[in-house]
Structures are given as C-alpha cells and as structure tokens.
Amino acid sequence: MSKKVVKGKEPAKSSKPVVDIKLTEDEIKDCKEAFDLFDLDSSGTIDPKEVQAALNSLGRDQSPTIFRLLAGIEECGAEIDFDSFLGHINDRLGNRESKEGVQKILDLFDAEGTGHITLKALTRVARELGESMTEEELAHALERISSLGSPELTFEDFYKVMTKKVYG
C-alpha cells in the first residue's frame, strides 16, 4: 500500500509491530469480508465481545474450526482494527513453509485430537467453508495423497501437500 505524504508533514508512525503476513491475496480478501461482518457499525474496528457473541450464535458444534481460528482475539485489545485482526489470523495459521506453521493449520482441522486429518474432520471443515464436494470425493482426494492408503492424512502427508512437495 502506498502512503499519502502531505508536503511538510511526515506520515504518522504506527505503534503496532510490523507483522510479516503470509496469507494470499484471496485469503486477505476473505479475512476482510469476515472482519466486515463483525464490524456492524462500519467503524473500522470490532469489539472482541461482539466477535464472541457472533461466534456463540453460530454454535461451537457447528463451527469448531472458526472458534479455534479466532481463539484469543480479545488479546488484540478492546477495539480491533483490520490490521490487528489480519495479524491475529496470520499468527493462528502460521507460516506454511515451516513444520510448526503447518502443524498449527493441521490443529485447526483436528478437533478430535488424533494428530491426523480424518475424513470426518475434512468433511466438517469443508461444510464450514461452504465447499460442495461430496464425502466420497473428499475420501478419494485423501486416499490419493495419504501414505496410509486410507482417507486419512498424517502430519507428514499434510506437510507435503502444504509445501507443494506432492500433488497426489
């Protein structure tokens, strides 16, 4: 983004730490759409209490991935602007090039705590995100890339997919 500089004045310095955003342009757009849903008064900021109320209305059983993704949002402060919101999502997703970052993403899928991405978990996340693939299609996709030969991914399988070291 370019900053507008008024002659004779320097741009305001932000007290926020600079965060290296590892999200794609489409993911940032999706985050902005989600942020705008929470920003009911179009003020450019959201209140963590409003986020929690919106999440509670969704129901924990209906969207556990979203709950885990937004966990700790209140630590961003009483008024969360889009940059802080984006930084939080970025931190929760982690660096997709590191094993630690990929583990964070796997943990979002793994509500049962199995250490794997099961067909049940993938189906749940697909439905939460509005994906229309059938369970059979999801099972076939998992089987193609699973080292186990079943509709279940180990961490290593998932890491290879996330770092594009295998395409199935």
Automatic annotation (TrEMBL):
Pfam families: EF-hand_6, EF-hand_7. Its main location: cytoplasm. Keywords: Calcium, Cytoplasm, Cytoskeleton, Repeat. SUPFAM superfamilies: EF-hand. GO terms for molecular function: calcium ion binding. It comes from the Eukaryota. Plays a fundamental role in microtubule organizing center structure and function. Component of the infraciliary lattice (ICL) and the ciliary basal bodies. It is found in: Cytoplasm, Cytoskeleton. The keyword Transferase does not apply. Residues 26-61, 97-132 form the EF-hand domain. This is EF-hand domain-containing protein. Belongs to the centrin family. GO terms for cellular component: myosin II complex.
